[in-house]
Amino acid sequence: MASTLFKQILHPDSRAHPWDLYAELREEAVSVQDDGTHVVSRYEDVKALLSDPRISSDIGKATPGTRMTANVPTPGTAPTFIIRDNPEHDRLRGLTMRHFGPPARPGGVEDYRPMVEWLVRERLDNLIGRAEFDLVEEFSHPIPVRVICHMMGIPLEEGATILSPLLGDVEREFMIDPFDAELVEARNRHQEKAIAYLSTHVERLRENPGDDMLSRMIHDEGPGAPLNLHELLGTALMIFGAGHETTVNLITSSMLLLLRHPDQLARLKADPSLAYGAVEEALRMEPPAHMRPRAATADVQIGDQVIPKGASVILNLAAANRDPRRFTDPDTFDITRPDNAHLSFAGGTHFCFGAPLGRMEGQIAVRELSRRLVGPRLLQDPPPYRDSPDLRGPSELRLGVDEVLPA
Amino acid sequence: MKISVDLNRCVGYGQCVFAAPDAFTLHGSEALTYVPNPPDEMREQLLRAQVACPVQAITLGVEDAGAPAATSPRQDPHVVVVGASLAGLKTAESLRETGFAGQLTIIGDEPHRPYDRPPLTKACVSEKLPPDRLELPVTQTLDADFRLGVEAVALDTSRRLVRLADGSSIGYDTVVIATGTRARPFPGGAADGITGIVTVRTRDDAAELQRRLALSPRRVAVIGAGFLGGELASGCRELGLDVTLVEAQHTPLQGPLGSVVGSAVADLARGKGVDLRLATTVDGFEADDTGALRQIRLSDGTTVEADLAVVALGAQRNVEWLDGSGVLADADGVRCDDHCRALDEQGEIVPDVYVAGDVAAAPHPVLPGRLLSVEHWSNALTQAKTVARNITRRGDQDPVPHTGLPSFWSSQFGVNIKGVGYPGIADRVEIVQGALGEASFSVLYGRGDRTVAAVTFDNGRHLSYYESLVREGAPFPAGFSACDDNTSHAVHPVGR
């Protein structure tokens, strides 16, 4: 029977606490929604489908009519590797990864460590003397935006005032209701403005390359390079968007969880190397991206249910991460949880491109926040959330502190 | 520190490389190598790499692995593990993990503590990784008595004794046979007395090979294009050396993977500049006045000017010491049941004798009626766990069967080859993802109308799905449609 659970999840009232709805989704291996979307929410099933060769990331391979298929690609750009299958995926991703990570640049992300350390220190120094502040505005948002601007050679001022707000609008308009013509129109307008900005920026880097990833992509003379302009713009837009909104969520949600669980925060304060496990546990419980859209290119049997060929599929990573069949006490926040193989960065061909950078920012952020904030407490719980049910995170996190220690 | 990565689980997400670029290296899109014994200063990096692994494949060893019991000496029962390589070590580790509190002795013929062998033909060649830095990590203190550098020469099952080459013997309550294999020498003694002809099975072999490679040989001849031969040839090419790879069959890896897939490997090898001699055997070796190799005569009448030859013609099982023990053991391995318990000539269980690793010839539920010896890393691991669980089970518990499917990996010529199941018994292959000759592809192997194996070339992220098909014996050809836009869907005879 067609379910409307997903519609409830999309509704803003569910944003702070979608977990009971997710538990309901997990009662069935496949929950078929009123628009025909097949939602998969159990850990083993989601994990299997992430690596299943019959499951495509190219939404265009799904039969039209669902919410997912109504989301058309960004005008003026080529589809990014996020929504392409092989061999095109590997070509596009390879030409991008060449400037970011292994095998060509194994230390590509570690190179950013000193900058991230500096940014975190600077943001906390800036809070010395404050008794109250919004963590999102003062810390979680500016750090990833500065990192991503640096990576893409975008002047900080332009990134913070032009591109980031535009993408914030796009994200808000993205998943709520693709059938709402007004929202779609607004989204396209904002997206076009973002593309227009990036086109100018790419031309600027073409003339005057900097020591940044985007400049290296533009001026790549290696095999198969460079990406054409439409591919470059699509990739740049995707990296800018996905690369900072998700990390904002990760930092904010990690602190939210630590402040809700003072015993865990105390452990982290006592042993800063627990920051690694703390971020993994925050990733598991509050993934920065909740759901991945897919298309079935063949009938896929899950238990005694079948996802038919052409179906729109949602892999609910966030629900899978709290599946009691896989994780003991899944709703308990335990920063030393063993064998924490969460699915927050998805898996298979489309494993998150920026995961190592997000992790590094998250680890340094929670380590320093736990060390330098004295007597931190939540002033509002639950905090208000941004609109997106997928790239889900608090829009602000008001904290009170006794003191912010100097570095 | 000591670390290991289960490269059967690893599918090349590369998260460890990002986190600890000095310890881990990604080759091409999927093949991982790592520094098994990195310096302690890298601890923070390694902790970050460990948590970041999406498949949780990285083991960091405990610091005090060699420490003896803190308090009173261990009491009976006494488990004696014969063989101090992966299967032996993992048996000991699994025994302690399952709560075994008795005495533990591990006997090894090599003078070294247990080390990881796969790098010997890979990173020890291509990256000059020192072979004395391969010690395996353990996840907890073993509190075991290591008797190293002394061979076991006999098993006396009636008196429950293991006799050692130094004349001593060790009594046991339970004994585990994990003596593995040794390199098969070049047959007929043709290589005897000539220097510059080596095999690679042990740490000392790899050190000798490294020493000879450092002398810049004019050309290296690798004899046998199986998994190890391919890896060795590939590694020598990465060093910039001229390489001739000689193989008796029509393609590399024809025995294990068939000639359809083997021909793809042949193309990869040639693409890397290997002088590949197929359907060719070695007729003889010529030495110079000093007794050093200078030329190899081939069956096609040609000669190869080479001053280093690496013989990679497979392995022989170390079973001779079991003569007269009552345990049925021969060139095919030590017979055991599906619980890894050793059997005698009559097929009866020999009490308290277990078998694990390369040396075992065991049945498998997927292949009723056949005994299989599986010389893969994963098999040593899964059989060791089965043995440990069965040794420590309570009297009222049934023994657990060994159900681990064979799985393997090999990185050669820039590609990571992974597989699961029994490709060696298949009669047809189906290309299910990509196409032969593409950057990445996947094939299924069928025996009759049933799927028995799967192999991926730089496509290991999908192997878990194919493994499920092998495990359920899914219909062959599978005929499903992968999302890849370049899938050929061709079905061929496997080619033997």
Automatic annotation (TrEMBL), chain A:
The UniProt keyword set, sorted, is:
Heme, Iron, Metal-binding, Monooxygenase, Oxidoreductase
MF terms from GO for this chain are: heme binding; iron ion binding; monooxygenase activity; oxidoreductase activity, acting on paired donors, with incorporation or reduction of molecular oxygen
Q: Which CDD domains match?
A: CYP164-like
Show the segment(s) annotated as Disordered: 57-79
Q: Does the keyword Heme apply?
A: yes
Q: Which Gene3D superfamilies match?
A: Cytochrome P450
Q: Which Pfam families match?
A: p450
Record's superkingdom?
A: Bacteria
What InterPro entries does UniProt report for this protein, alphabetically? Cyt_P450, Cyt_P450_B, Cyt_P450_sf
Entry similarity comment: Belongs to the cytochrome P450 family.
Question: What is the official name of this protein in its record?
Answer: Putative cytochrome P450
Q: Which organism is it from?
A: Streptomyces violaceusniger
Automatic annotation (TrEMBL), chain B:
InterPro entries named among the record's database cross-references:
4Fe4S_Fe-S-bd (IPR017896), FAD-oxidoreductase/Apoptosis (IPR050446), FAD/NAD-bd_sf (IPR036188), FAD/NAD-binding_dom (IPR023753), FAD/NAD-linked_Rdtase_dimer_sf (IPR016156), Reductase_C (IPR028202)
Show where the 4Fe-4S ferredoxin-type domain sits: 1-29
Work out whether the entry's keyword set contains Flavoprotein.
yes
PROSITE patterns registered for this protein in UniProt: 4FE4S_FER_2
Query: Which cofactor does the UniProt annotation name?
Result: FAD
Superkingdom field: Bacteria
Name of a matching Pfam family: Fer4_13
Q: Which UniProt keywords apply?
A: FAD, Flavoprotein, Oxidoreductase
Gene Ontology molecular function, alphabetical: oxidoreductase activity, acting on NAD(P)H
What's an example GO cellular component term for this entry? cytoplasm
User: Is Flavoprotein given among the entry's keywords?
Assistant: yes
Put simply, this protein is called Pyridine nucleotide-disulfide oxidoreductase
The organism is Streptomyces violaceusniger
As recorded in Swiss-Prot or TrEMBL, the protein's gene is named: hcaD
